[in-house]
Amino acid sequence: MSILKQKLQEKIELARPRVTKLVKEYGDVVIDQTTVGQVIGGMRGMKSLITDISYLDPEEGIRYRGLTLPEVFEQLPKPSGADMPYVEGLFHLLLTGDVPTKIEVEELADDFRRRRILPKYVYEVIDAFPSFSHPMAIFSTAILTMHRESCFARKHNEGLSKNDYWEPMYEDTLNMLAKLPEIASYIHAKLYRDGNRIMSNPNLDMAGNFAHMMGIDKPYDDVSRMYFIIHADHESGNVSAHTGHLVASALSDVYLSTSAMVNGLAGPLHGLANQEVLRWMQDLSEKMDGKVPNKEEMSKFVWDTLNSGHVIPGYGHAVLRKTDPRYSIQREFCLENMKDDVLFKYTDMLYQVVPDILREHGKAKNPWPNVDAQSGIIQWHYGVTDYDFYTVLFAIGRAVGVTANLIWDRALGYPLERPKSITTDMLEKMAKAGKK
Ligand code: CMX
After folding, report:
1. CA 108, CA 95: separation in Å to the nearest integer?
2. Residues with catalytic annotation?
3. How far is the CA of 434 from the centre of ligand 1 (A)?
4. CB 293 within 8 A of CB 346
5. Cα–Cα distance measured from residue 12 to residue 17, given in angstroms and rounded to the nearest whole number
6. Which one of 22, 28, 221, 239 is CB 3.0 to 4.6 Å from 208, fit for a cystine?
7. For residues 403 and 380, what is the distance between their CA atoms, to the nearest angstrom?
8. Best mutation site among 302, 315, 371 for ligand 1 pocket (most ligand atoms within 8 Å of CB)
9. pLDDT of residue 142
10. What is the pLDDT of residue 274?
11. What are 398-418's pLDDT values in tens digits?
């Protein structure tokens, strides 16, 4: 058994009695109340999910296993010559709560390498897609196609004890994660490089190999590591993480659940916002003839967008109430590596004008930038100008966090998700009774 799997097994044994005790001894303790506004308003703030893998504080931003993002970047081991850590190391941290040693992370990176060969039929499925398809639709389908490989589905059919559910889920997860860079870069080659595929390099780490298969030189390997790490998890209630958890709660395997989570991520209010940001900035760039707008010109552009009934992409958040630390990490990278880039200058100018405008506009609860405000311009700078592709990169990162959660869902025996719905009549009656 690998070091990671062994360690995970020990952690699972320690965690199980805590959950059993909570349900047995405190199962009927009230922890929250639900309002009419929450039932109609997308369940905002309703405490109804559990995960130890990450926690999102509205003021501070995301913590992975208790570590802030700057701490994660500082503490995780890095491949030699790299400024950014191994994505495999992040998976180890998310799964176990421990920062891996160099030996542990290298063993895991080797494990990923062994598992990354893609079945031939996945290439054929991708090839069969019309070339004008959205890459997220192809990515989701390619993952879904591999459902037939699922160890979990096979073992469950054969009769697997509930206690052991996590084990084939772990195997499926590693098998799938290791293949995502190959799937994504193959889709990129098909849609945007006339099918010119670059074969993988078996000596590289997951993200380094992705950069290699994209055909982009350093520091794009570090961009990929940074990108996959910052997008990995944002606690359980966001659409992609929640969808993955919900679908897996029906004992659907990792392939079915991850494909579903990718579909949730593909919405413009969620992961697709990064491509919306680029589209929007290109529009401005055309209007400005490539020049950097001054503050007044930028403000006018932002107001025009709002007055035409559109949201400002890359700004606002359902939970966060401050600048997203994922934005700040990328901003630091831009300042160090691409501070003269015109689109970065646009982004910086937007940071100066948008928060005040959104406050004056008076709708958004959070006027600050989120992860998507900065991520597309970095890709653009390094030559990935096909912005439809950006959400696929988000999806590779998000899969790392969502699947770590799914393994724990199985380990702790979390049941089928099934909240109760009511009719509008019932809600009106409850609302009136509650007002008295
Ligand atoms: N521009 C203009 N209006 C905005 C806004 C923005 N960036 N953010 C929120 N609002 C509006 C909402 O549309 C809503 O208006 P209505 O009452 O007319 O429906 C109002 O402000 C209240 O919204 P909220 O409670 O502040 O935000 P929500 O939780 O409903 O939505 C989010 C959150 C992210 C969907 C929203 O801020 C938004 O649409 N942002 C732009 C798209 C974006 O950047 N998405 C990426 C999110 C990051 C991620 O994927 O994790």
Report:
1. 12
2. 270, 317, 372
3. 29
4. yes
5. 9
6. 221
7. 28
8. 315
9. 98
10. 87
11. 999 999 999 999 999 999 999
- Residue 311 alpha carbon to ligand 1 centre in Å: 7
In this structure, the residue with its CA closest to atom 29 of ligand 1 is: 318
363, 366, 370, 371, best to mutate for ligand 1 pocket (most atoms within 8 Å of CB) = 363
Residue nearest atom 51 of ligand 1, based on CA coordinates:
270
Predicted pLDDT at 288: 86
pLDDT at 1: 85
Rounded CA gap, 296 and 140, in Å?
42
- Nearest atom within ligand 1 for CA of residue 234: 51
List ligand 1's pocket residues with C-beta within 6 A: 234, 238, 269-271, 273, 306, 311-318, 363-366, 370-372
The stretch 79-83 carries a mean pLDDT of 96
Q: What are the Cα distances from residue 399, in Å, to 101, 182, 293, 327, 374? A: 23, 14, 37, 20, 21
* pLDDT bucket at 366, cuts 50 / 70 / 90: very high
* 316 Cα–ligand 1 center, Å: 5
Contact (CB, 8 A) for 222 and 334: no
Q: What is the pTM of this model?
A: 0.95
pLDDT in tens, 282-322: 888 898 888 889 999 999 999 999 999 999 999 999 899 99
Ligand 1 centroid – CA 367 distance (Å):
9
Work out which ligand 1 atom sits closest to the CA atom of 318: 29
Domain 273-381 annotated CATH 3.40.50.300? no
Nearest CA to ligand 1 atom 47: 270
| Per-residue confidence (pLDDT) for residue 311, from 0 to 100 | 94
Distance 283 CA to ligand 1 centre (A): 21
Q: Whose CA is nearest to atom 32 of ligand 1?
A: 317
Give me the pLDDT at residue 405, please: 98
